Amino acid sequence: MNDFLRDVDVVVIGAGQAGLSSAYHLGRAGLDHVVLDHAPRPGGAWQFRWPSLTYGTVHGMYALPGMELTGADPLRPSSEVIGEYFAAYEERFGLRVRRPVDVTSVREGTAGRLLVESSAGTWSARALINATGTWDRPFWPRYPGQETFRGRQLHTANYPGPQEFAGARVIVVGGGNSGVQHLLEIAEVAAATTWVTRRPPVFRDGSFGEAEGRAAVALVDERVRRGLPPQSVVSVTGLPLNDAVRAGLASGVLDREPAFDRITPSGVAWDDGHRVDADVILWATGFRAAIDHLAPLRLREPGGGIRVEGTRAARDERVHLVGYGPSASTIGANRAGGAAVREIRRLLDRAPEPASA
C-alpha cells in the first residue's frame, strides 16, 4: 500500500453540494487537495433521486459558489438537472474529483497526518473535510414480525416513482417531505394508501423566511454541539402547506395513522385490534450520517453523534464535517465549505510542514 501513498494538504470525501463547495474554496485558498467520491458520475446524491422528483418540486436548491444554476426546465428530473450542473461546475473550476472511489477508513498516520484509505489507494493528509452526507445510510426501523411480511418493503433510497405501485395497497411510513411526496403521487395510481407517522405531522402555512431558517439551524446546531445525532429537518421546520398538500388533506390521502405495533404477513397491526392489509410498505424514514469510515478516529460522543464547533470536530481540529448537522441544507453546505477552509488555512499556517517533508 505504501507504493500508492500520496501526500496532500487536504482530502475531501464526497462530491455533493458540500464537497464541491469545499473544493472551490480550497482552490481559491491555494491548498493542495483531492476530492474522493464514491458515486459513478457527478451529481452527488441527486443522481440517485427518483425520476418523478422534478426540478420544480425541489425545495431550496441553492447555487454553488461562483456559478449560478439558471434556465433549468422545472419539469425535468432533478437528478438530470443537478447532475449536469455539478458536472459543469467541476469542469469550470477544474475540480479534481476522483471517482468512483470508496473510502474505507480514516486513521491516525505519522507526523500529525491522517491516513485516508480507499479503493484507489491511501492519501496522507494534514486535514480532512468529510462531506459524505446521508444518502448511503437509509434508516430502516425494526418492528416485530417484519420478516414475516409477504409483500414488498422498500426505502425512499430505492423509490422508483409511482408507476410501480399501480393497483397496490401501499403503506407509507414517515412524516417527512419525502413521505408526503411519495404518498401524494402513489395515491393517484394505488388501490389504497395508508400514511403512518410516529408523531402527528405539523404543517407550516406561509413562507419559510430567513428568521425561521436561522431558528431551525440553531435548534439543529444545539443538538450537534451536545454530541447528539442530528435530527431531521422536518422535525424542526414542519411540512410546507402547499396546494398539493391541501388537496391531499381535503381528500383524506393525508389522514394519518399512528405508528403500528407489529407487522403481519399480510400488513400491519395495532394493539387495539386495528389492522391494515398491504402489498407494499414504503419506508420514508430518513437517513443517518454516513460517517462510519471515521470510526478509527474515535470522534463520537456518548450521545452517538460527533460534536462539532462550527464545522470542526471537537475531538480533532484537523477534521471538518461539512453538510453535517446545521450545515446539511444546500445553502448551509455552501457557507460551511468556506468556513471550514478558512479554519484549515489557519491550522496549517500554525503548524507548517517539517523541513524534511
Describe the structure.
Helix 1 (17-29) packs parallel to helix 7 (330-350). Strand 13 and strand 14 (267-269) form a beta hairpin. The protein has seven helices and 19 strands. The protein has 357 residues and is of the alpha/beta class. The model has no long low-confidence stretch (mean pLDDT 89). The longest helix is centred in the last third of the chain and has 21 residues, at 330-350. The strands form four sheets. Strands 1, 2, 3, 4, 5, 6, 17, 18 and 19 form a nine-stranded mixed β-sheet that branches.
Lay out the secondary structure.
Blueprint: E1 6-13, H1 17-29, E2 33-36, H2 78-92, E3 97-98, E4 103-108, E5 114-118, E6 121-130, E7 152-155, E8 169-173, H3 177-186, E9 192-197, E10 203-204, H4 210-225, H5 234-237, E11 239-240, H6 243-251, E12 256-258, E13 262-264, E14 267-269, E15 275-277, E16 280-283, E17 308-309, E18 312-313, E19 316-321, H7 330-350
Parallel strand pairs: 1-2, 1-6, 2-3, 6-19, 7-16, 8-9, 8-16, 9-12, 10-11
Antiparallel strand pairs: 4-5, 5-6, 13-14, 14-15, 17-18, 18-19
Helix pairs in contact: 1-7
In brief:
With 357 residues, the protein is α/β, with parallel strands linked by helices.
The major sheet is characterized as:
9 strands, mixed
Multimeric state: single chain
Mean pLDDT: 89
Count of discrete alpha- or pi-helical segments spanning 4 or more residues: 7
| N-end to C-end Cα span | 19 Å
Percent of residues in helices: 10-25%
